# Entry
Amino acid sequence: MTFDVKDKTVLVTGANRGIGKVILEEALKRGAAKVYSAVRNVDSARTLVAEHGDRVVPVRIDLDDPASIAAAAETAADVHVVINNAGVLKKKSALDDGSIEALQFEMNVNVYGLMRIAQAFAPVLKANGGGAFAQLNSVASVKTFANMATYCASKAASYAITQGLRDSLKEQGTHVVSVHPGPIQTDMGQEAGFGDMAASPSLVATAIFDAIAEGLFHVWPDPMAEQVGAAYQSFAENVVESDMEVSPA
# Structure
């Protein structure tokens, strides 16, 4: 299943900075007619509107606020591609004070927020011919790093939900993409202490739209991610992407 974003309408969550901003700009470069910049504070998208004009439309989405997502789905009723980029990170090990609270916070945004977005926009995508839905997961969804174990747990859960969406949305002609970046040059990356090992967010944006165009599910966009993806490839192809079904007992 392939899809060309040229002349289509795209929605990107967390599009005012970091990876999300670069994704928005890549969509415009590839000829998207309109990109909804879905952010918690619409004023934060003013610079994007000033730069790109009416091809960028700010819309309020807070992944922790179901009402904002439902309202955005009504506003963006013409959308063909949804890219759920927004997410949060609390740098906590499983043994740290406050780790349970950190995991609850991360699960609410990174997992339940994904589900809220999918539930609100799946009918919109179906009504507009199917389109595509991309989720920013992480290499942390398949490998846990002890100093950010709670974040890794939330991303493992979001990856599991993304796999389910791949099968659920296939029936309506919506192609699902699971994106697994390694360390990326963003504010979140700086907070996590990635430093010089972080890769350019442009690699992520390019890889997402290439995957949408080529009908790929897994995306490993940067050098560290490519290394993890190469080791994971057999399992991904033979288990995750297979038509394996669980028969009732």
About this structure: The chain is about 45% helix and 15% strand. The mean pLDDT is 93. The first strand starts at residue 9 and ends at 13.
